[in-house]
Amino acid sequence: MKIDKARRLTKLPPYLFAKLNKMKSRLREERKDLIDLGVGDPDLPTPSPIIKRLSQAAENPRNHRYPSYQGLLSFRRAVSQWYQRRFGVRLDPEKEVLTLIGSKEGIAHISLALINPGDIALVPDPAYPVYGAGVIFAGGKSHLLPLREENHFLPCLEKIDKKVAQRAKILFINYPNNPTGAVTTKDFFQSIVDFAKEFNIVVCHDLAYSEISFDGYSPPSIMEIKRAKEVAIEFHSLSKTFNMTGWRIGFAVGNRAIIETLNEVKTNIDSGVFQAVQEAGIEALRMNEYAVKKTQEIYQRRRNILTEGLARINWQIQLPKATFYLWLKIPSRFSSLEFAELLMERCGVIVTPGIGFGSCGEGYIRIALTVSEESLEEAVKRIRADNLIRREFLNAKIKCKC
Ligand SMILES: *Cc1c(COP(=O)(O)O)cnc(C)c1O
Q: What b/e sequence results for 22-46 when a residue is b if at least 16 CB atoms lie within 10 Å of its CB, and e otherwise?
């Protein structure tokens, strides 16, 4: 029997990395020394107090049953205390916090809760692909908001057509930003809240990278803005902060009616997060800042190794203040896919072409700092030693030694 897949699946954007992945598999067989800077998955281990707490909690038969849908109240209390401590924001753990199976799960499902077929969602370009995928599954349409370097990778709210804004139901934003590494200010969040109130739009802010920041910078939460709770929810994750990507735990906070609609969707789809994992999550949220500082220092050193190394072939890179990504401009005669192939073939270095995050990602590649300093040094060495790539960056005129 021929399996006809549902139209919603055919509406997903084309998978651009098929060729890249094929090349990756082939190269994996040919050479053992590929350096993978493509995936945004921390290489650092989960801190041991969290693991210990999981293993204790796993022994407890009380945790072997279905968890509650909203999540353990004790976990939601830990989230609320963490928000108070970290952002000075008060949250009602019973009504304004929801446990998620990782924030990706909540982000994918929020559109099912709020979007009717034909509705518009405002989605940044480039962006984490899940925002747009959720909108498609709900039968909605994404109206893309270009994030451009000259506007510090912030969407230009004034440029959104009034008619589009009036029809929009959701606005997705994400700062610190994946893939661009951009950060923002409370003033920008204020303008987002004002805009959302004017046009009756639900703001979904993805704050996955709030704790991966450098040089003393501390990213704000949109919940710090007065009256943000009237229009916004914020998605959060333990994945990046505590190196827990495999554990599948995150949470959403904010407007109680929005939280309730998301919970309604989830109640009909999943049955929550293993309670032992939620207990481990409590342990994580209660850890002192020391562990997070250590993680920040590691990424900061890696960031510096790469940017300083590549600056020596004139590859100019903006130092990101947050996230473990570098968003690098590439020579204009290559597409991002071509340049990623070049780096893979010639240097054995895997990166993500910007086009994978949307058409405004063209002209860039994304590098994830999720490998050791030694591997980054080796990657820099290989890139600098490659004549073709060197030549692209070093001005030919300067090269002439007269
Ligand atoms: C990693 C990531 C997430 C998802 O993290 P979870 O593991 O699902 O909690 C969400 N948003 C962005 C931008 C990410 O990079």
A: ebeeebeeeeeebbbbbebebeeeb
